[in-house]
Amino acid sequence: MANRKAIKTKLTKSALVKEIATYIPKGTTDPVRVTKAVLEGLADVMERSIRPGSLGQFMLPGLVKISTKIKPAVKKGTLVRRPGSSEMVPSKGRPKSMRVKARALTRLQKAAQK
Predict the structure, then answer these.
(1) Is the pLDDT of residue 59 over 90?
(2) What percent helix, strand, coil does the chain show, rounded to 5?
(3) What is the pLDDT of residues 69-106, one digit of tens each?
(4) Residue of 42, 36, 40, 48 lying closest to 64 (CA atoms)
(5) For position 4, what pLDDT does the model report?
(6) How far apart are CA 45 and CA 51, in angstroms?
(7) Phi and psi of 59, rounded to 5°?
(8) How many CB atoms lie within 10 A of CB 16?
């Protein structure tokens, strides 16, 4: 089985292929087993790329880019702008959180336009 450490550098297409190839068992020729291994490897590489302490983004070349952004904590009572009326109101407070965004890239956008 492959390495479970966080990925801290941007993966090129060939590096991504090599990383996923480590999940395929040696000597396997059954297409179903190979496909399952590739999907499992892709999910694991994706998770290791966006977890805390890693690069914070994953790109499947030409299809999708997944990125994370840390939203800081807001103390209770801090003045924040209300979106509807632009008036400043005291905040209820919220903990630090992480947002995950997925963005469609060129090849996927072109496929949707057809």
Answers:
(1) yes
(2) 30, 25, 45
(3) 999 999 999 999 998 898 999 999 999 999 999 999 99
(4) 42
(5) 80
(6) 10
(7) -130, 125
(8) 20
Three-state SS for 97? strand
| Alpha-carbon distance values, 73 to 54, 77, 78, 100 (Å) | 21, 12, 11, 17
Beta-strand relationship, 64-71 and 88-90: unpaired
What does the alpha-carbon distance between residue 100 and residue 67 come to, in Å, rounded to a whole number?
A: 6
Over residues 38-43, mean pLDDT: 94
Phi and psi angles of residue 64, each rounded to the nearest 5 degrees, phi first: -150, 150
Residues in CB range of 97: below 8 A, 6 or more apart: 70, 71
Provide, rounded to the nearest whole percent, the portion of the chain with pLDDT above 70. Answer: 97
Q: How big is the chain, counted in residues?
A: 114
